[in-house]
Amino acid sequence: MDRMDTIHTTDMRGMQDKLDAVRQRADAFEKAYDRKGVTRWLRTEGRREMEKVLAQADRLMEQTFVFQDPWDMEPCSIPYQLRPMDWGASPNGDPEWTYMLNRHSYLKKLMLAGWYTKDRRYLDKLKELLFHWILHVPIKAGSSAARTIDTGIRCMNWAPLLAHLSAMDLLSGEEMLTILRSLSEQLAYLKDSYAEKYRLSNWGVLQTTSILTNGLWYGEFLDPELVQWASQELEKELELQIYEDGSHWEQSILYHIEVLNACSTLLATAQMLRGTQLSAAQMPEKGPGHRSLKKLYRMYGYVQMAAGPDHMQQAQGDSDVTDVRDVLTTGALLFWDPALKSGGYPKLDLENVWLFGMQGILAYDRLGTRSPDRLEGLFPESGNLYFRTSWREDAHFTYLKNGPLGSSHGHADLTHISIYYQGVPFLTDLGRYSYQEHEPLRTQLKNPPAHNICQVEDAGAGLADGSWSYAFYGDCLKNYTMTLEQIHYVEMPFLSRRPGGQMAFQSRRVLIFPEGIWLIADEIRMDGVHKSQTIFHFAPEVKKCPFRPEGAGAHASPPEREVLLERDGIRLKLGNETGWAGKKERLSRQYNETEEHLVFTSRDEWKDEGWIMSWLTPEDVALIDTPVFQAEKDSRCGPELVTAKEILIAGQPRYIAILFRHEVCRGRKVFSCQGTSFYGKAVVLKKEGSHFRPVRFRA
């Protein structure tokens, strides 16, 4: 045997050794995963979820594609068939459809269908699509089928598919080498194409976590320096992108969760392949990656706080309205946290069964559950604030936003408010609809009037001038919050301006009462005569109904100041001092989809200073103006100084809400209202017996 033959033989043996190592790892994983046990679960507890999967798998057999998974970044519910197969196709004209096609998250449905039905054709189709992609798509910059973000997602989705195919003996040595060579090429391309801007983008995390996950599975076929680089880069990405409070800087909970899911898949893979289990109570204080682990844990806490009583995320920034229970289920299992489990599913769902296998099903059944210790989620770095009355599904819930823009996925939504009353959404955000530059609704949904805000008509919190850009954006100032006796008080100040530059100071002040009462005061200061509009958007299910102030007695507000709204038999009143004009507009709870909804607008005109009071209350609540006196009734305070609203529930006085507009700099600083003395700029008088007791929220 000459030297070349010896080298060739040595190379072949080395390659075979690498393949053997991969197969052994897949076999060991398969034993713990227990595919037969998972298949039994699919046919019993998972049967309902599998009905949808089978329908999708049957469409895939005909090369018909629909993107409707919960965390598809750009869903499309319209089926499109590709005959012949074309990985660069965009049948609806949206390039995002092409990107979704090349992420391959749908391929696991063919594998699950093959397990469930024992029909080999599903698995053959999976292989056919895999190898067709490898054969027909060049890995190069500029290809719509091989962008770096989509390549990262695709390779992450390939990793478990290859392991299962190997453990099922459905790949020859040559087929396995073909896939592994493609994986190696794609992952090397990610590093070669990496830009520094990705450190501050979900794009970066979706690439580096993919490299590291495949490194755990197929490290023998990857350059060790590539894996080391990805590990170091991921640490930098998470350090930059995740605030210490656990919120993601991009100001879109959808992309918060995309980053979290990618990191969680990496962590789950490491745990399963290494046979380890983390506990939130035993989080390492030192060592490699400990800060990143803590940040991931806080990210799960953020998701739980941000979910409404119906378990749905808000359409904050570029986000859809999506159920987050599968995400919290993953977090509960990864960090062995009963509080996270309370926000997840009671039993493991299909997505998590796919990730964890039978060991996950059994472990999750052993994990207990308890409600989180806190009802308020305050995230000062991102300016996102969440308040709820309980962790029950019929709770009242409030979301407030006054924080930095974040990335181009952020919207001009300073001082936005969303609310749930008795567990159902009333005030809502409007979503994103599209990313296409030529779609006018895309820009419209980013601008302030698409949010529940008060806007000076010739100034604003921001102005989007494209799908990914702004002509200007307001400067948010520091929020102030105080919770006392289950009542929440929030101040959200910011600086808006005209496009030409003149500044306006705005501050939204919100009082939230546990009975489901919201008082919203918008304060504006801008020299000259100006007009402003207060805008509230309601969920599509909310309908206007005839105003009948039943139970409010003689103190009911005039009908023209209030609108009675209803959904599912639950009623809520919207009111303010000047009255509302209603109309229908469009919102988008899911990408590529729109629905009609009610929007109410109130317009005010003022000179130098504006003060607009709005409220949402149950049907039996009435608000009455009541006087405030300075210095033991020596002098009645004027409306330019203070607003005081007595709140009656079913005709009985319950609270008096008092808000001062300015610092009192002359005269005595003690005030009185209905015989009760108090001091402070934001005070609630609580009725106790025959007297009121002051509770101060702002000195």
Quick recap:
This protein is an alpha+beta fold and 699 residues long. It is 35% helix and 26% strand.
Poorly predicted residue ranges? 278-284, 549-559
Q: What is the overall silhouette?
A: elongated
Q: For the residues shown, what is the average pLDDT? A: 94
How far the N terminus sits from the C terminus, by CA atoms, comes to 92 Å
| Strand element count | 29
Strand content: 25-35%
Number of helices: 16
Query: What is Rg?
Result: 29 Å
**Helical proportion, percent range:** 25-40%
What characterizes the major β-sheet?
Answer: 11 strands, antiparallel
Main structural class = alpha+beta
Helix and strand layout, with pairings?
Layout: H1 3-33, H2 35-43, H3 47-61, E1 64-67, E2 76-81, H4 95-101, H5 107-117, H6 120-136, H7 148-167, H8 173-192, H9 202-218, H10 224-241, H11 253-274, H12 290-306, H13 325-335, H14 338-343, H15 350-366, E3 376-379, E4 384-388, E5 397-401, E6 416-421, E7 424-425, H16 440-446, E8 454-456, E9 462-464, E10 470-473, E11 475-476, E12 480-484, E13 487-497, E14 503-513, E15 517-537, E16 543-545, E17 562-567, E18 570-576, E19 581-587, E20 595-617, E21 621-625, E22 629-630, E23 635-636, E24 642-649, E25 652-660, E26 671-673, E27 676-678, E28 682-688, E29 691-698
Antiparallel strand pairs: 1-2, 3-4, 4-5, 5-6, 6-7, 8-15, 9-10, 11-13, 12-13, 13-14, 14-15, 15-20, 16-17, 17-18, 18-20, 19-20, 21-24, 22-23, 22-26, 24-25, 25-28, 26-27, 28-29
Helix pairs in contact: 1-7, 2-15, 3-5, 5-6, 7-8, 7-9, 8-9, 9-10, 9-11, 11-12, 11-13, 12-13, 13-15
